[in-house]
Amino acid sequence: MSGDPWRHQNKEWQETLALAKAHGWPEPRVGTNHHTVVLSCPAGVHKTVIFSTGRSSENVARHFRKRIRDCQHGSHAESLLASIQLHLDSAERWISAAETRVDLDITQQRLDDLLNEAADLLNEAEREFDLLAERHEQLASALATLFPEASHSTVDEMTQAAHTDLRTAGQNLKDAPSDARPLEDMRRRHGRLALRLSEIREHLIE
Predict the structure, then answer these.
(1) Are 20 and 46 in contact (CB under 8 A)?
(2) End-to-end CA distance of the chain
(3) Long-range contacts of 165-173 (CB under 8 A, 24+ apart)
(4) According to the model, what pLDDT value does residue 127 have?
(5) pTM for the complete prediction?
(6) Distance separating alpha carbons of residues 124 and 165, to the nearest angstrom
(7) Quick one: which of 182, 190, 189, 202 has its CA closest to 163?
(8) Rg, Å, the chain Cα set
């Protein structure tokens, strides 16, 4: 080996030394045999002996490079773990943001759908209102034409008045001459009116 402990004439061991230095391992120390140096991690857990002649198997050098990469005691390993943690945290935030965006888009779509449905219902309600308002005006006019003096009477009051008139008409039909020509038509009319009155009263009961 040269005077620089980080230098070695063998290519495989030179790569091993360079990798250890990059990972923050301490400078190799001279072994008991002055033709060797000991390379160990900062914690002294992972170590190997390097011969200046490079007589150790090059496969050993390649194997030890894997141990250097896997070692958790070097500064490079710590920064690598920190980098991994940083990217995992960032990925988790992006995923959470994407999930939130999906929920936001679904919620927005539902709001748009409800607004469209509400607009359709409002338009339909306005059309129905216009029709009902027109119908209300027609019915009020018809009621005023039928009985101007009773336009503010209740249905119950009106049916009671109709019942009184039908009862009187029914009694008179019994007393009317049997040979009177319009008598049969009047009886049929009385029956139809009684039926209509009965339907109105059933409606009131409901």
Answers:
(1) no
(2) 112
(3) 166/190, 166/193, 166/194, 166/197
(4) 94
(5) 0.43
(6) 43
(7) 190
(8) 53
Q: Under a CB-based contact definition with an 8 Å cutoff, are residues 39 and 30 in contact?
A: no
38 and 54 Cβ atoms separated by less than 8 Å? no
154 in helix, strand or coil? coil
Which one-letter amino acid corresponds to residue 199?
E
The span from the CA of 194 to the CA of 172, in Å, is 15
Q: Which two tokens stand for residue 68?
A: 């250097």
Interval 54-96: pLDDT, tens: 555 778 888 888 888 888 776 665 666 656 666 676 788 789 9
Tracing tokens 């060797």 back to the chain, one arrives at 36
Pair of tokens at residue 13: 């061991």
